[in-house]
Amino acid sequence: MTVTADMLRTSPAETGFDEAALARCIDACLACAQACTACADACLGEESVAELRSCITSNLACADVCTATAAVLSRQVGYNAEVTRALLTACAAACRHCGEECAQHADMHDHCGLCADACRACEQACAALLAG
Amino acid sequence: MTVTADMLRTSPAETGFDEAALARCIDACLACAQACTACADACLGEESVAELRSCITSNLACADVCTATAAVLSRQVGYNAEVTRALLTACAAACRHCGEECAQHADMHDHCGLCADACRACEQACAALLAG
Amino acid sequence: MTVTADMLRTSPAETGFDEAALARCIDACLACAQACTACADACLGEESVAELRSCITSNLACADVCTATAAVLSRQVGYNAEVTRALLTACAAACRHCGEECAQHADMHDHCGLCADACRACEQACAALLAG
Amino acid sequence: MTVTADMLRTSPAETGFDEAALARCIDACLACAQACTACADACLGEESVAELRSCITSNLACADVCTATAAVLSRQVGYNAEVTRALLTACAAACRHCGEECAQHADMHDHCGLCADACRACEQACAALLAG
Known about the structure:
Chain A has five helices and no strands.
C-alpha cells in the first residue's frame, strides 16, 4: 500500500538506520496508529464500554505516539539520533502497554485482538531499530 | 500492511459508507501523509531547495490534513456526515494542490513523482467516498 | 501564553489574512483541541460514559481537525487559499457539531460546558477568517 | 487563552502529577508546537533557507513530539506512568535539540529567537514534571 521504502530510497539524505528496517517501522507505526484509533472507537461502541476505559485511553495514547514516530522517522535530513531514539523508546512503551491492555479483551472483542497484534508488531519494529 | 478493513468489519458500529471504499480511503490517507512528510524532507535536502518552497509547504499541509482525515474516517461510533464530508472535501483539495505541485518536479526528483501519485490516489479515494 | 502573534509578525511571508484575526484563530484552534482531548477523557471517566459516546467521538474528531487547522494556518510560505478555506470550513463544522453535543451535557458536567465554550470560540474565529 | 487548568480540575480522574505543573506543561507543549511549526515555515521563506535545513527538521520533529505530548498529558483516565515518562523524556530531548538549533540563528532571525525561548520553556516544563 504505502510507498515508504521508495520514498526513503529516493531521498538525497540518509540516517544510518538499515533502510528496510526503517521502512518496516514507519509502516508498522502507521498501521498501529490506525488500529488503535479504530479500536478506541470500537470499544466505545461496545455495551461493556465502562470496562474498556483503560483500553480506550491506551489506544488513544498509542495512536498519538505512533503517528508522531512515523513522521519523525520519515525525515532523514538533519537526522538527530538522540531525539529519534528517545521517541522510539516511548513508542515501544506505548505499544507494549496498549498491546497488553488489548490482549486482555481479545477473547471478547476481535478488534482488540487485531489491535494487540498491530501493537506487538510495532513494538518489535521499534525494538529492531533501537537494536540496529 | 494495515488491518484497516478488518478493524472496520469488527466494529460494533457503521457509518453508511461502503466499507471497502472507506478502508481504501483510510489507507490512501495514511500512505499520502507518509509520502508527503518524506517528500517535504527530501525536497529540503535537495540543492535546489529554494525552488521547492511551495512544494514543501503543500506537502506539510497535505500530510496534516490526510492524518486528520484518516483518524476521523477510522471512527464509526457517533459518526457525523456533515463534519466528515467537509473534511473529505478539504482533504481532496489538499491532495489535488499538492499533487499538482509535486508533478511539476517529477522529472527532476523521483520523490516528487512518487508523492504526486500518492496524492492523486488519495484525492480519488476521497472523491469516491464523497460520491458514494 | 503562546507567541503565535509574534511568530506571524517575524515571518518573511504573509497570507493576506488580517494578522490579528489569524493569530486569534490559531490560538483558538490550539485551545479547542486541548479542551476536546481533555473532555473526551473526562467523559470516558464519568459513570454515565455509555450516554456520552457521541460526545466523546465528536470531541476526538474536533481535536484532530483543530490540530491540523492550527498547523496549516501557522504556515505562510506557499499559502494556498483554496486548501485553507476548505479546512477552515471543516474546522468550523467540527466545532459547531462538538459544541452542540457538549452543550447538551453542560448542566451535568462542567468539562462539557468549558469545552462547548472553547468550541464556540473556535467556530467563531474560523468564521471570522472565512468572512475576512 | 487555554482552559487547560480548568479542564484538569473538572475531570473525574487524576494522574498524581501536581495539577498546576501539569497544566503548565500541556500549555508549554501547545505553544512550542505552534512556534516550531511557524519557525519551520519562516526559515523556509528566508533567502538563506539552504543553511537552515537542520533548523527546519528539528522544528518539524519538535512540533510532532510536542503535539503528541500535549494530547497524552491531557488524558487522566487510565493514566500510565511508564508511557507518559518515556514520552516526556522524548519531548524534553526534542525541545533541547530544537532550542539549541534555533538559538544559533537567533541573531539573524527573530523567529528563531522566539522559537528557542518556547523550546526552552517546554523543555523545563517537561523536566519539572519528570522531577515531580
